[in-house]
């Protein structure tokens, strides 16, 4: 690969004898990986025949999953490069925590955090870019995450709304992406000898805002997919100088190499952070640090939010649908209406005033002229056992249904909604009308 001018010289200076091995990796193919979804009743019921587990990532495997395979479409797997999986492994939030993923799109780390949280507690996934926030919401829906909301704000706005609010915050920072060079040619084009300093200035602003939102006793995880000390060790040094955070040393017994204090201000505590290098590990490379505030985590105080609750008519429309389609208590959470849409919102929400919430929880459906139209997200959020009726499709029918076609099941009478499955995995809803399954795959998801 043609590396940008100045890049190789910089890493020869930093790495000395190790530089040749590091620079040679840019001519090797990129590595792929995925995680299985522990939120599913049978997480390993996916095609793992050729996949080898990633030793440091509880649900991770090396290998590639086809984006059109049922395992992907039904949210049984999430494709994520192996190094990136170290971040979720280091964070490992406990179920019940209040967690903020500040730079969250498209959702690789958020779905990993949600896996560890097991549906308990609150995950706030924030993304500054509106288009990317929409992709994030749909990836969380596909993965069946019901205890998350998505916000679309800059970090300073959130810091004003949510002082000392979260038990854990992940900053997976926008960076120069040197670890993406093998996968993303644009990252190579952007790089100049001053780009790392420009990224570092933005990263300092982001971590400063993140720190304001961290509760006493809380944990900040900072990560990048770049090798540049300006964006890695030097950001940790800045946090140690400007906040009461301390580095929690990571386990360097496996693939994670110690970070390099000499590439920042020499503070030996920085070595507790970790680096994944592509020359010594099967992955693209990453930096990760875990830092903690002194003190004891406070009790969560739910914010006083004035949410629009459903009207009596809307409640009836919802319960008519739910009673007829779902088993009892399939949906938990507080019912709230946003525009024409009904959501089940997670409990323990902080105050939402001043925050742009673009995905307030699990979208249940839309009220349309005195009718309730269920949302696609129910198909991947709820297990098949939650539905009174499921319709299993053959592999050939699966492809046609995703395309938007109807299927026939003459043995099923009446009119009702059903979960559509392939290989037992729910991936869409359908409306059965006298033996014909009308296709409810949203137009934007048809292929
Ligand atoms: C490395 S990516 C996050 C990847 C994500 N965590 C994942 O695992 O899928 C960084 C994200 O930060 C966002 N971003 C860019 N500028 C930002 C800023 N000033 N403050 C917060 N986020 C920003 C980008 O839009 C991008 O989605």
Automatic annotation (TrEMBL):
GO terms for biological process: RNA methylation; RNA processing. The active site is at 225 (nucleophile). One of its GO terms (molecular function) is RNA methyltransferase activity. SUPFAM superfamilies: S-adenosyl-L-methionine-dependent methyltransferases. The keyword Chaperone does not apply. S-adenosyl-L-methionine binds at residues 103-109, 127, 154, 172. The keyword Acetylation does not apply. Belongs to the class I-like SAM-binding methyltransferase superfamily. RsmB/NOP family. This is tRNA and rRNA cytosine-C5-methylase.
């Amino acid at each position: 690969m043609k590396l940008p001018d100045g890049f190789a010289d910089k890493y020869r200076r930093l790495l000395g004898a190790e530089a040749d091995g590091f620079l040679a990796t840019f001519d090797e193919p990129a590595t792929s990986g995925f995680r299985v979804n522990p939120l599913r009743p049978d997480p390993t019921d996916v095609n793992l025949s050729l996949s080898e587990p990633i030793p440091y990532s509880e649900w991770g495997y090396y290998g590639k999953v086809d984006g059109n395979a049922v395992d992907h479409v039904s949210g049984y797997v999430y494709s994520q490069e192996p190094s990136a999986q170290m971040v979720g492994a280091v964070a490992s939030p406990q179920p019940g925590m209040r967690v903020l993923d500040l730079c969250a799109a498209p959702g690789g780390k958020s779905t990993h955090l949600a896996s560890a949280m097991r549906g308990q507690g609150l995950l706030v996934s924030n993304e500054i870019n509106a288009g990317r926030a929409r992709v994030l919401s749909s990836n969380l829906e596909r993965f069946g995450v019901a205890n998350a909301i998505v916000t679309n704000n800059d970090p300073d706005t959130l810091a004003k709304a949510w002082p000392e609010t979260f038990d854990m915050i992940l900053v997976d920072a926008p960076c120069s992406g040197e670890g993406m060079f093998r996968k993303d040619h644009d990252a190579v084009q952007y790089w100049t000898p001053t780009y790392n300093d420009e990224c570092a200035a933005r990263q300092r602003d982001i971590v400063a805002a993140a720190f304001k939102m961290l509760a006493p006793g809380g944990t900040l995880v900072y990560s990048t997919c770049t090798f540049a000390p300006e964006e890695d060790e030097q950001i940790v040094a800045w946090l140690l100088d400007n906040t009461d955070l301390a580095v929690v040393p990571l386990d360097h017994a496996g693939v994670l190499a110690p970070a390099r204090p000499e590439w920042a201000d020499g503070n030996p505590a920085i070595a507790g952070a970790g680096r994944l290098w592509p020359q010594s590990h099967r992955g693209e490379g990453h930096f990760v640090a875990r830092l903690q505030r002194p003190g004891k985590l406070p009790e969560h105080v739910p914010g006083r939010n004035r949410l629009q609750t459903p009207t009596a008519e809307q409640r009836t429309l919802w319960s008519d649908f739910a009673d007829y389609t779902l088993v009892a208590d399939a949906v938990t959470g507080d019912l709230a209406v946003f525009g024409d849409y009904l959501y089940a919102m997670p409990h323990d929400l902080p105050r939402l005033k001043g925050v742009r919430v673009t995905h307030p929880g699990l979208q249940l459906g839309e009220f349309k002229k005195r009718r309730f139209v269920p949302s696609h997200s129910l198909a991947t959020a709820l297990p098949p056992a939650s539905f009174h009726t499921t319709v299993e499709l053959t592999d050939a029918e699966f492809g046609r249904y995703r395309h938007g076609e109807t299927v026939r099941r003459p043995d099923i009478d009446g009119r009702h909604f059903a979960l559509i499955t392939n290989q037992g995995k729910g991936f869409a809803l359908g409306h059965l009308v006298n033996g014909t399954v009308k296709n409810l795959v949203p137009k934007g998801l048809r292929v």
